[in-house]
Amino acid sequence: MISKSKKLIQKINSPWILTLVTILLSISIVNLSFANVDTETRFGIEFPQLSPIRTPEITEYSLRNELTFLLSENHDFPTISVSVLVNGGSYFEELEMIGLAELLGELLRTGGTKNYTPEEIDMLLDDMAISLSSSGRVHTFAVNMSFLSEDVEVAFNVLNDVLRYPTFNEDSIHRMKLNMNTQIARRNDDISEITGREFVKLVFGKDNPYARTYEYETIANITQQDLLDYHQTFFHPQNTLISVTGDFHTRDMQRLLNRVFGNWKKEKVTFPELKRYPVKYESSVNLIQRDDAQQTWIAIGHVTEMTQRHPDYVPMLVLNTVLGGSFTGRIYQRIRNQLGLAYAPMAYYSVYYDFPGVFYLMSQTVSDKTITAIDALIDEVIKLQNEYITEDELSFAKESFLNSFVFNYDTPEQIVRRQLNYTFWDYPLDFLEQVRDRVNDVTVEDIHRVANEYLFPEHFIILAVGNENEFEQPLSTLGEVNLLDISIRRPRHDITQPTNLKKEIGEALFDQYLEGMGNVDHVHNMKMRGITTEYRGEERSTVEVTAYIEFPDKITQLISTPRGFLSMVYNQGNSMMTFPGRKMHLPPELAEDLRYNLRSNPISLAKNYKEEFVVYLVEEKQMSDKTFYILSFSDEVNQFLLFIDKETMLPYQTVQETMSWQGLITVYKIYEIYDEIDGIKYPVRIVTRDERGNILSEVDFTEILFNVELPEDIFKVEEIME
Question: Are 240 and 70 in contact (CB under 8 A)?
């Protein structure tokens, strides 16, 4: 049977189409403004009055358990849209479990329920063309659904299960954690994302709920029980709002909602206190050095204490349009058109319903105009404070705002969702219309006053992300510079200090292995060549890898590719990557992995373990038909476990948290085959698996040599100037 979803026309989701639409809409807004201001007066053309905006009728309906609904009929199409807001979110997370709300929000949809496994929900939603998504935000958990009106009862039964009876399936938790770890691993790939993320941290403080980001360790800390407990804290009928829009009759819908949700018991619960964080205005100059940057991303600004309830919210909206809210704003005209420094410099005064926002100027510019661009951005704010804007500027800003106002009413669903937010935050339902009416009352004097009352150039936080070596002047010309470290760190384990007896036993056991391994004292360097097969889900790739090691602290890997050799070098803490036509610094995560490969090499361990590592016996463990001694090795950065086969006294596997294409995962490196080379027993086949048993890589060594003549400059790390 062909599912209903297969019959539906797919939506266009092409990035370039979305970009084109955005540009066309922006041009349309500007052109509309010119039409009203210029065309009528210059050419005598009269435009008819626009049709009045009609807002849908909304009925508020509450069950006896205080679960509240906003119902709005619309019979244009045989569909229904549902939006859910639950009061909660990441604001209440403990610092050691940042990411809990996001994980919970995603797993509402994918983690299974009391009545449906994750696979059963997938099949049901697909067969009935029901769209269901969920997320965890700072102050809310959100669930959105859309479906054919004929399937309304099935859809609401699924929604009831998702909201009330999630089970947070362990496999689903594992997959989501891998996804989140991947996001951590890739979060420094895009300079624009780095700029936005780190600027918010500077404004609010890194531990503020509006700025903090989850890390490997905080994700690893979250258990299934934590998710169940967090869900139980917030998901109650009196803490939930639901909007329903579409093809239904209100009385029939009320009866259905009573039948599905009426038995959701209202319990006496104490919600966590909404802790308020102090707002600080502290200026600073900050740099994130990126040697690979071809341009500089700039963010400048400070926190805003204003919310949308504030009497001066509307004048600040108009000010933002004058300063940099569109292609006609002062910043765009100055930075882009007059100075030619950047493509899209903008100003934003981000104000929210009931919590602080940020005022910021943002731009990207060629590296050798960085200081010039920063000075020009700040200068435009100061000019706005010192000089009154013209009546024409004010009129144009108002027209621009009002002409774009119609886009707030694209669909009934959009309108009702906005009313849902207004109800959630206790705003009047006609708040947007009030804003529209108040725009007309803004004066030139209002703009001058609010520019001086709410913008503080002397307290600006400045962030530049780029290659300072290319700046026309040092960033320190603007003030003392804080160099920010955004490297992604693995979790530091709280390693319990072992007893002296466990240390003595661990070292004695490892010494037994060394006796059987052979004399490694005479080994100064080694060369290894082999075939490596990497697995990424269903995909695999095979390459030839040659590695040179000079003990104790130098390693180079040469990877054969169709375009030539890719090399990675680690030399006493310095590192470099080269590939055809390019040299660059090795990313910190790869450098750390290379360092780990060097230090965990059997020869390296044998030569240096007593000086470099704390070694102790964790336990003696039976696995299948074998017994293993499990030894812990730890230094100031890493910890890994070494399993030694009690019968052969050879290492069987190491267990280590490491980076992969999935992010930070636990890797089991299994030494499957040993060979004796120059009197030394050395593993010649190594297979790595994840904690689920999936193969990540296979290495088969074809050549292992000790004390070779090393190629000239094989460990050289050059000074790199991008």
Answer: no
